[in-house]
Specification:
Chain lengths: 566, 566
């Protein structure tokens, strides 16, 4: 937005501003104060703080006015709906800015997937910025849909909504100075390079930071986060659907009282129903305050700190020269969102309209080789390496166990379930099978085409027939989630856009998903396990400790395949 | 600097780092802590913090290691020596980064002057960044050497050492949305636009900030600074030779305890002898601590805060991925600088080498029409508007007084001195004459070719003969400072580079200047007046209240010439 004479006149009070917010107390992120002032808006931008007349006066007497929230790091695809539907929902929670890593889309469809995210967020009532996915594929041996190189990133280098390089998950390639990774870091060296690292090794952390990575959202303990903060890492405190690190990290901050200016909030991966239930970044603010953080500090973590981190000079503050992205709160103790404004306009009435044409190639992304019942047979002997789930966390344990068997083949029971991952981009026929402890499913199977980061088809169950049926259901719908039991499809959420997202409408997705969660828990899966998010991470070979890919079990600690599984 | 495998191996501890600083305590600007750690440096960049082996080990046992200081805003020309000589001196005080507005050079020589500053600082052991002078000339009716337009700035837009737009002194053109000013602000809207404003009017401040200006170094009281900080202004606390605002501002910060992350230090204009006497930004840190600020907070104001303000991602912290610009301090209580490193190298041995060729056109910048004795005659009657000096400040009072006279002409005495300003760029013959109260010179004259921002020739004295001789002396030397008494030139510092700088060497300038200060005070000028800096501001029509230009007396409050002076 260019500053013009109309804005100057509104700022000078020579003419009434287009909109004036009056009667509220503003949260000042610069001084930490909260005080009474009018906020004058012209052309969607704040042009004055003080005493102003307006053509439209919004009475916010008794309320608090704070900057719109920023989600410092998220994958829009994880919400299952289209990017514009996610924004439609989350913006009403006060999140007016999204720093998005479209690496799911890039893994399936490459640049076409990134273009989809950019186009779909062009007209939403929020600021959607995009980081260039840095690890597509996640590891060189991954079976994903596309390889996204530094050369391909160059076309996005000067896009006004591209802020830098997305989370560098492959930290080994950084510390080993692999040329293809250094090329990407160099390309975005004057912007922000996001990180993704889980280690307490001071030398690995130092080297990773020295290479130019500056943020991390993977800290699960305060000790880790503080160690990294000391080294100059900007800490994104993650509170998503599956990974919920806020309590641990914020409790530490409150206890120690260190400076929080290098700390932000992010959701990373948060399902739409969780956003509706508890909120988005506003939930992070409320929870942090419940844990003892000062409200203004929590609001800073949700606003100014993130804007500073990404060089977003006109976001994150209620001040002249900033966009009028504003959240009206009922009070600093309760912190409930009463109204949200983007560029000075109330977001309440926005309804997302799907944009992707019916004949887009992004709608036909499931390309599997034929799968038959016998492909699920899994021979075992003596001891096997088994993926053990840890409720509420993405990391898994790598255990060795004597699996239940019949005729030399793994026979799932209430303790051990069967997991299969099937390549779906090039119909290569690659398929991995392994055992999982702690899922507990009986008499059925759950399948998903969302499986970070390569998004092959994952299915977990206790019998091969239901597992096969679940895979065929996903082939039929062009991707999605499905629950199968006793030879019948109970429910399916089709996710036809790259096998990741639905444009059928949020309500339909939510209702079906709620029914599916009931299905799954009725089939024996513990209540503290979110089956679809869990399934979507079991094939990701960058999160410890043991994962399954179409090429077989992968030991993340050693960064190598488990040669012999049994 | 590109990250490479050698740096990765040093960071990982696989090979010894080129240099390791060992035994000291590091100041952590992120957490506010101070603790013991090794700092490993490779290729001039910090690659590791922790426990490291090095090819070269610098033992700093018992010492404190903090980031190199940044001067958030200065005019290199004001130090009288060449830019490289200024750096040679100030870098030894720990200032390893300079954010320079070369608007003196631009006012005399336009783009050629800016190129000189860039070239002269190419090889110094410090980071010298340049802001594009925004107000050249300072006001449309000024008689300066060049007009520097947005169009001319475009060639510098992508220069790696250009960070944005220099101090926007003409705030009226901003709040009135004048197209030529908005064009400049727009050109640098994704970088930093520095400010220069002195008002407490909330609407003027709001509008100025709404237009994109984000820093200010002109606050003289804490109340002003806090008001601006609330509105989103980054406050540069100025401590120069003449303008010394640190005590007032830091005392307020200490008393109120508000967040200091939007506060920095700058020198603006500081003479070389003052740098040698009390230091540079290190002096600001020591003085702030004397006033009660926590040492780490004072160091942050001198380092991280400034780097953040200007988006200098690799400066302002002792952390991996940051340049090894480091200051070794003797302790956090004393804060004396023991050693300084730029890109890992000790700066102690640097000696500046003048680069400007002897035949450069920048050396012949004094172009006056012939001046004769009678041109200094100043007719007066009844009451006259008089510039009244305020010791220790740049602002002046606008008073009306009955001047001493002989035969209808002003006859200076111990109370009222005569000031003349003569156009020197285009030999136009324009010349202003007025009276000044409080300078006290008797039996002599002082003249200067440094006169912000147009740098015409200024001379102040009590008799026309000495004033004429002083002007002729400056014509002879191609610019400079001179003191004349009783028909004789007592001392001259020639400043042949644009009439602003000397490349004769710092010692010579300093020795002569010291002798000149003695001369001037012996001639009756009070000890609390620094005559040359004062003289250099008496012609600047953007600082209140009354100024003299070649076109006559100018009322800065009304922004108009005083039509009838007597």
């Amino acid at each position: 937005m260019n500053f013009d004479s109309k804005m100057a006149q509104a700022g000078m009070g020579i003419r009434p501003a287009h909109t004036v917010f009056r009667g509220g107390q503003i949260v000042n992120v610069f001084t930490g104060e909260v005080y009474r002032a009018d906020v004058a808006v012209e052309n969607g931008m704040i042009v004055g703080i003080g005493s102003y007349a307006g053509e439209h006066v919004v009475d916010i007497s008794g309320k608090i006015l704070c900057p719109g929230f920023l989600d410092a790091h998220l994958h829009l695809e994880s919400t299952l709906v289209t990017p514009s539907e996610l924004v439609e929902n989350a913006v009403k929670c006060g999140t007016t800015t999204y720093i998005v890593d479209p690496h799911e889309s890039a893994n399936v469809s490459g640049a076409a997937g990134i273009d989809y995210i950019l186009e779909e967020t062009e007209e939403v009532p929020a600021n959607v910025y995009v980081m260039m996915p840095s690890c597509v594929p996640a590891l060189p041996f991954e079976d994903n849909g596309c390889t996204f190189t530094a050369e391909e990133m160059k076309q996005y280098r000067n896009h006004p909504r591209v802020l830098g390089l997305g989370e560098v998950m492959d930290h080994i390639s950084v510390i080993q100075a692999e040329p293809s990774m250094l090329e990407k870091l160099e390309l975005f060296s004057d912007q922000v390079c996001d990180g993704h690292i889980m280690t307490t090794d001071e030398k690995q952390l130092s080297t990773y930071l020295a290479a130019g990575v500056r943020t991390n959202h993977e800290c699960t303990t305060y000790a880790e986060a503080k160690q990294q903060c000391r080294l100059g890492m900007h800490i994104h405190v993650r509170q998503g659907s599956a990974a919920r690190n806020l309590d641990a990290l914020v409790s530490g901050l409150v206890a120690e009282g260190i400076d929080t200016s290098a700390w932000s909030f992010c959701t990373d991966d948060k399902h739409i129903e969780d956003i509706r239930r508890e909120g988005h970044i506003d939930h992070c603010v409320r929870r942090a305050v419940e844990l003892g953080m000062k409200p203004v500090d929590a609001i800073r973590m949700a606003t100014h700190n993130t804007a500073q981190c990404y060089g977003l000079k006109q976001l994150g503050a209620v001040a002249p020269g900033y966009w009028a992205d504003l959240v009206v709160l009922d009070g600093l103790d309760t912190l409930n969102v009463c109204a949200v404004y983007h560029h000075g306009k109330n977001v309440a009435d926005f309804r997302a309209q799907p944009k992707l044409p019916a004949d887009s190639p992004l709608r036909t992304s499931i390309h599997c080789a034929p799968v038959e019942l016998e492909d699920f047979a899994h021979p075992v002997s003596d001891e096997s390496r088994v993926i053990e789930l840890i409720p509420g966390q993405l990391v898994t344990n790598d255990i060795t166990a004597q699996l239940p068997q019949e005729n030399g083949f793994f026979a799932p029971d209430e303790t051990y379930s069967k997991l299969a991952v099937i390549e779906r981009h090039r119909a290569s026929g690659k398929m991995g099978v392994a055992a999982v402890r702690g899922f507990g499913i009986r008499g059925g199977a759950v399948a998903s085409s969302v499986a970070h980061d390569s998004h092959n088809l994952s299915v977990i169950g206790d019998n091969d027939a239901d597992m096969l049926l679940a895979i065929r259901e996903l082939q039929r719908t062009g991707g999605g989630y499905t629950v199968v039991s006793g030879g019948k499809v109970l429910h399916t959420v089709p996710l036809p856009i790259m096998g990741l997202m639905s444009d059928a409408g949020f309500s339909e997705v939510q209702d079906t998903l709620a029914a599916m969660l009931e299905d799954v828990h009725r089939l024996g899966v513990p209540e503290n396990i979110e089956p679809f998010i869990l399934l979507s991470f079991l094939a990701l070979p960058v999160i410890p400790t043991l994962r399954l890919t179409p090429r077989g079990l992968f030991d993340v600690t050693r960064m190598e395949f488990v040669e012999k599984q049994n």
